[in-house]
Design goal:
Layout: H1 4-25, H2 32-44, H3 47-50, H4 73-85, H5 93-110, E1 117-118, E2 123-124, H6 135-154, H7 160-165
Antiparallel strand pairs: 1-2
Helix pairs in contact: 1-2, 1-5, 1-6, 2-5, 4-5
Length: 170
Amino acid sequence: MASSKAHHATGFAAGIIAAAIVARSGGGPFHPAVLLSFIAGVAGSTAPDWLEVAWWSRARRLWITHRTLTHWGIGWLALLAVSYHTLGHSIYAAPAFGFACGGLMHLLADWPNPLGVPWIAGRHSLNLWNSGHCDLIVVAASWAAAWLIGEHVWLHSMHALPWLRHWPIS
């Protein structure tokens, strides 16, 4: 699993991605739903881990095995799809969308290590590195995605065209 700092750093990137998509779906960049989706994206980035804790007990032990139900990819993808489909129709859609973006970012950060995540039925791992190692790669990739999506939505890809001019044509 990625470190707690990596999950927080990727959570801010997930919040920016969610806010950009919510802003693009309607309401503009200053709509309250944009801020709510950002906050929920940051919270969702650590949710698969804190949802496992039995907050109702004094011991605060896990009520469910780590990386099982709360790390299940289908559940997070379903929340993302349903909330995206209801953006603009429900006041809960934007925060739910942000929360799902954060949760999926958490799964993507955990995926490279040997324990993996249960995307569909069983766990799958990319087996790239052990837990806590190479967090910079995960954080950089999440922020690159946030920059690309944010730049596309808020700057209307004004910086993408010069990049394309320098690419070799095959």
